[in-house]
Amino acid sequence: MTENAPVLEARELTKTFTLRNAIGFKTSEVHAVDGVSFSIQPGETYGLVGESGCGKSTTGRMLQALIEPTSGDIVFHGQPISEFSRAEQQSYRSKVQMIFQDPNSSLNPRKRIGSILNETLVIQGIRDKAERRKRIVSAIEEVGFGEEHLVRYPHEFSGGQRQRIGIARALVTHPEVILCDEAVSALDVSIQAQILNLLNRIQEEHGLSYLFISHDLSVVRYVADRIGVMCKGKLVEEAPVDELFAHPKDEYTKKLLDSIPHAHPRAAAAAATASGATAGEGGTR
Amino acid sequence: MTTTVEPNGAHGATDPEAPARVITVSGLTTRLATEQGDVTAVEDIDFHVDAGEVLGIVGESGCGKSVTAESVMRLLDEKTADYSGTVEFDGTDLLSVSESRMRQYRGGRISMIFQDPMSSLNPVFTVGQQLIETILIHQPMSKEAAKQHAIDALEQTGIADPHARINDYPHQLSGGMRQRVMIAMALICEPALLIADEPTTALDVTTQAQILRLIDDLRRAHDMATILITHDLGVVAEVCDRVMVMYLGEAVEAGPVRDILDNPQHPYTRGLLASTPGVDTDRTQPLPTIPGRVPTLYDVPAGCRFAARCPFAEDACRENRQQLTEIAAGRSVRCWKAVDGLIDAEAGAPNDGESAPPTGDHRAEGGER
């Protein structure tokens, strides 16, 4: 591995879903993701934004190896994952973890937290019980809980706390990349801020890379280093955060940025002057 | 803003200088009987909305903003819900009229838009059938006339080719289109009051911007009073004239929207604003957060309900219940320290959110345990 080599790359990723009618005949095809390429550097947060149906979650699921791309490659440390052996595939899954949107449905309600975290490690093939225990305790402490919380059930925690447990579950395998698919969208603002700070701190401490998939541009702006904008399955623009917000090039990006409602008075004023060319409708009141 | 109502609007009877008061809610308290015991979901809520005005109700989940709206519409199951206070609308107290009378108000003079347009529309009837049903309940007319009326209503909400869309089933429409249909249905009887409960939460930002603009245009055109319930302060800033911030069943701060957003007084409002990432948030600093989490309604604190999470709280706050106190015309806050100006003094200049985060971010994490 050379310095500055990307951890994870998407090369011309394409996913086509075939729609079939009730008796199994092909009726049409949907190009959910269409030739998307980007790369994530070590320690970087790459934000993927777009509206519902633009293919951002499908891209995330392909990167997580949950679904196979129709064509194109996912490249991990320079090696396409399609060429991985079974053992390498398993190791890939532990190196690239995922945090889901809904903390309520992504934790098994019938299992204790300790058992949920343990299960992840068992599946990853870590046989040493003491090693599993050590990793579980360190992960749960990392997200601000203690060992005593391991014997509790998910329903004993609030939404924000459950999302922390989701983060702990991602951390137990010592990943290099975490894919956060709308990881804070279901949370209230004050809790959302706690989780964003936690994600930032963990990233600094472990040098993790994040792929942060979200529809919320203000949140992505806060966490990401670079942003890719997706529209109808294609990556229409990619730029460092400040560059994207200051000088959006693509028409769709401009439209997206103009649509953000601004709570902060100064931000609203700034946005009104910045987008002066695009007939100021909102923001001015 | 309310004074710019066109005098030749649909209900031109109102004097543009003094907009008519549409609804006055005073002392609204809603108790709910649940399996774990009785809770007071909203307590002692006062507000009013004038014609052509938009009142925003904001707060996080569980603060009682939706229960407030449902109480005004009396949508809660009256076997388990108990209302007190008054909801004065058209010179009548809605909380004391009969259920059959109430049914005439709902969808007629007062209507409501819900968050999820898919589950609010009936999947087995076409859009047209549902719109026509609404019209015929409130306004006797021929089916043909009602159909034309429905088409006009769809057209008004910006739906392309309403003649074709009227025969579509809800699943054939996109999320934004369904929300437009819901708005058309809510507005079809030209209500005096529209209650919109998180109308854009399920929608994409670009669609949200269109729907908010639509609600705004329609309330101007019809001089309609609107109550907009949302958790999103950005949405409030875009469309509301006045705002009421709720926390754990109580109003903690109320006033003109610009005043509240530029110069929040209650520590909760400050925390909420500071923890919302905006386009000018400093990315190198941790986000200010509100430590801890909202207590449940089963263990409401005795004193100030926000005291346990408040960086400014003292013993006096934890012991004494706070009163909503007027600090300027139309501006009130439920915090004695804010009333005495102590919060500003402790936090530094109120408008300088970046240099003086109103909540201690050293307590940012782990506070939820």
What does this structure look like?
- Chain A: Keywords: ATP-binding, Nucleotide-binding, Transport.
- Chain A: One of its GO terms (molecular function) is ATP binding.
- Chain A: It comes from Brevibacterium gallinarum.
- The complex is a heterodimer of chains A (285) and B (369).
- Chain A is an alpha/beta fold and 285 residues long.
- Chain A folds into 2 domains: 240 residues, P-loop containing nucleotide triphosphate hydrolases (Rossmann fold, 3-Layer(aba) Sandwich); 32 residues, no CATH class.
- Chain A has 10 helices and 10 strands.
- In chain A, the strands form 2 sheets. In chain A, strands 6-7-8-3-9-10 form a 6-stranded mixed beta sheet, with helices on both faces. In chain A, strands 2-1-4-5 form a 4-stranded antiparallel beta sheet.
- In chain A, a hairpin with a 5-residue loop joins β1 and β2.
- In chain A, α4 packs across α5.
- Chain A is globular, with a radius of gyration of 20 Å.
- Chain B has 369 residues and is of the alpha/beta class.
- The N terminus and C terminus of chain B are likely disordered.
- Chains A and B meet through α5, α6, α7, α9 and α10 of A and α8, α9, α10 and α11 of B.
